[in-house]
Amino acid sequence: MGDGRPYPDHGLSSRDWARLPPRQIRLDQLISTKRELDLQSLLAKDSTFYGDLFPHVVQWRGDLYLEDGLHRALRAALQQRLVLHARVLDLDAFEMGQA
Hints:
Layout: H1 14-18, E1 22-26, E2 30-32, H2 39-43, E3 56-60, E4 63-68, H3 70-78, E5 83-90, H4 91-98
Parallel strand pairs: 2-4, 3-5
Antiparallel strand pairs: 1-5, 3-4
């Protein structure tokens, strides 16, 4: 579990995230960027009704940071699933393209 976002600000909007295709990510590879969990959000049946159905993950320096979707990831873990479908922003590839 992390404490904040160690990677640079990417500036992606919700629309930008929606353009990234979801892919499978192993739950044990994710590092959370949030320290607190809202139990009410976790238990709400419609918690993703107004947001993206897929969690947002940022790949930076070889690590996968769960930026948004902690509640969905925890629900998946509680259901004993090993993987989660998430949208992944690969900042490693972006940095390599800048070099």
